[in-house]
Amino acid sequence: MAPPSFSDLGKQARDIFGKGYHFGLWKLDCKTKTPSGIEFSTAGHSNQESGKVFGSLETKYKVNDYGLTLTEKWNTDNTLFTEVAVQDKLLEGLKLAFEGTFAPQSGNKTGKFKVAYGHENVKIDSDVNVDLNGPLVNASAVLGYEGWLAGYQTAFDTQHAKLTANNFALGYTTKDFVLHTAVNDGQEFSGSIFQKCSDKLDVGVQLSWTSGSNNTKFGLGGKFQLDKDAALRAKVNNACQVGLGYQQKLRDGITLTLSTMIDGKNFNAGGHKIGVALELEA
């Protein structure tokens, strides 16, 4: 099995702090799949403070005989997105893709070529945007050996002939433990730990510090599986912000998630947030 992509390093800990929380939103997600294999995903949310509503529609169709995946998206900002990808056809573990976006109102268009290759001990990702003035080249590689993971990510601006990103990562992973450390542009240092304490309890720790400042961030979070249909989530950071979440599977294909964020420093002043999300799948 190939190592994860650079962007997925430390994902287990990030999910502890990100999944299951929808502060300040009313959210609805719907997923369905037709007998012919076309997948439809519809999502929408309303911001409780501004009242702004955002929605999106995604369709995905896979042609397994050719390793081809066609993806199209549209959102209420009137932006169209299309991706064509081919997986494992030219070479085992190789994925080639082209994605483009188009905004009819402004006429803005973007395009990007993407290449990904995964092998037993290496994962390489690269993309190049379509820009006649000089494309931006992003590339990353992750090497894995006996649980150790080492990654490097860079971005090169060909128009100005300079590096715009220079990131390193080092980690160690087992079945129930993940350690991740990273240095971004020599300025931001971060680390995370994920521990699966039992079949029901997952915990995570995150720490980050920016060079030249006293801005240190620390967070502790956990997820407890009450039973096969219900889960509790909690997290707290050094800014005294406490997040709580409860997820309940009401029936097959229907899941309700309730969450709240409490500002411990200004408890009496209010400003606390709640979130409600409903997921439908058929």
Indicate the topology.
Blueprint: H1 11-18, E1 25-33, E2 39-47, E3 53-63, E4 68-75, E5 80-87, E6 94-102, E7 109-118, E8 122-129, E9 136-145, E10 148-157, E11 162-173, E12 177-184, E13 188-196, E14 201-210, E15 216-227, E16 230-237, E17 241-251, E18 254-263, E19 273-281
Parallel strand pairs: 1-19
Antiparallel strand pairs: 1-2, 2-3, 3-4, 4-5, 5-6, 6-7, 7-8, 8-9, 9-10, 10-11, 11-12, 12-13, 13-14, 14-15, 15-16, 16-17, 17-18, 18-19
Describe this structure in words.
The protein is mainly β and 282 residues long. The chain is built from one helix and 19 strands. It has a single domain (6-281), classed as Porin, CATH 2.40.160.10. It has one helix at 11-18; strands at 25-33, 39-47, 53-63, 68-75, 80-87, 94-102, 109-118, 122-129, 136-145, 148-157, 162-173, 177-184, 188-196, 201-210, 216-227, 230-237, 241-251, 254-263, 273-281. It has a 19-stranded mixed β-barrel. A hairpin with a 4-residue loop joins strand 13 and strand 14. One of its GO terms (cellular component) is mitochondrial outer membrane. GO terms for molecular function: porin activity; voltage-gated monoatomic anion channel activity. This is Voltage-dependent anion-selective channel protein 3. Pfam families: Porin_3.
